[in-house]
Amino acid sequence: MDEKVKGNLVIIGGAEDKEGECIILKKLVELAGGRDGNLVILTAATEEPKATGDQYTSIFSRLGIEDINVVDIQTREDANNKKNVELIEKATCIFFTGGDQLRITSIMGGTLAERMLQKVYERGVVIAGTSAGASVMSETMITAGNDDDAPKKCTLKMAPGLGLLKDVVIDQHFAQRGRIGRLLTAIAQNPHVLGIGIDEDTAIVVKPDSTFEVIGSHAVTIIDGMSSDFSNVSELKPDEILAFTNITMHLLPSGFQYNIKSRVPITRR
User: Fold this and answer.
1) pLDDT tens, position by position, 31-44
2) pLDDT at residue number 1
3) Residue 71 pLDDT more than 80?
4) 246-267 as b/e, with b when 16 or more CB fall inside 10 Å?
5) 89 is catalytic
6) Active-site residue 200, yes or no?
7) pLDDT of 246-262, one tens digit each?
8) Which one of 16, 114, 131, 135 is the catalytic residue?
9) Residue 250 catalytic?
10) Which of 200, 213, 218, 231 is catalytic?
11) For an engineered disulfide with 134, which of 167, 172, 262, 267 has Cβ 3.0 to 4.6 Å away?
């Protein structure tokens, strides 16, 4: 299947502004339907679900959404709870908080809640996530790797994500934590996959036509390895520095757009 995107996604690089202009969270409120929206906050990624849920409930209430439900999924039993599944089904927007992306997939994978999430996404419900909640959007996600270091062949750990975004891998806190090396390594391992590194207080708003717009105060880095003609990736000598040639890179600040399907940036006029 050629489709990269089926629904609407807001993928946030973490540390989004929660007290000032709140550009990203205001956009999320708008897409959720404003005062008529029904927002579900999913706290599966965090080990502090009450504090995190309370924080985002307060923020989104201040920004204008009245109908907010925190769905605290900490076990697979929670993820198969019919009440939780019904809340996901009724939402106009589902927001994944930060934390640990492996918690999301290991707790929710294959459950009623995960299946319902896929259904409402295909129906057009907005799915959003910040930090760990951003990484989990793709089919394969980065779970660990060396920050702020030269890329090496086999220093990366990856795992299956929720698969909402096809043929893409997301990295977050990108410039702030020096993660370009680990995203390059991820793309070198499979040049067919598009790498998207999202800075803090920055997001991509992805539409069903496979285009996204950058919003927020920093930038998004695109790494496209489809045109590459050489890499030295192998399990032999895993600590060697990565070689990866003739790749394409784009740096897109707020207002710029990108077509995931054609892999072409759309510059702001």
Assistant:
1) 999 999 999 999 99
2) 38
3) yes
4) ebeebebebebbbebeeeebee
5) no
6) yes
7) 999 999 999 999 999 99
8) 131
9) no
10) 200
11) 172
